[in-house]
Amino acid sequence: MASPQMVMYEEEFAQVQAVTDRLVQDANARVVFVVDKNGQLISASGDTGDLDTTSLASLAAGNIAATGGIAQLLREQEFATQYHEGVRQNVHIQVVSSRVILVVIFDNRTSLGLVRLRVKRANEHLSRIFEMVMAKAQDPFRNSPFAEITDDDIDNLFND
Fold first, then answer.
1. Which domains does the chain carry?
2. pTM confidence score
């Protein structure tokens, strides 16, 4: 059975944004993104002004997909954590609950150890949020304006 489509409402988005905002501060990171596995940017915090966030989100998802292929060849389920070290900036990538990707871009103002520690806590918070999102997706009429519409209402609409 295919997994249900993830639909995020304002409440969950605000919670995700709060986690990413806090992670930027706690890890002293430059930028934090949450991206779905299709490459769609869900949330961005930090100094995103000079970044092409759409391309970064897409490339992060592609990176996870590519390393997923490597994992299969090595008979691993997934490489949930990745780290890329650059001259001026570093990227820490974490798969959250096998659903979304947490991307942290940081420089020499912080350390990989601090980023990993803070990402671990953010991962726990994000996992709970996305579990709630998926639970809502399992019940599509929960809190839906369509839940109160009956078959009679639809018949009456078209009988005029």
1. 10-158 (3.30.450.30)
2. 0.81
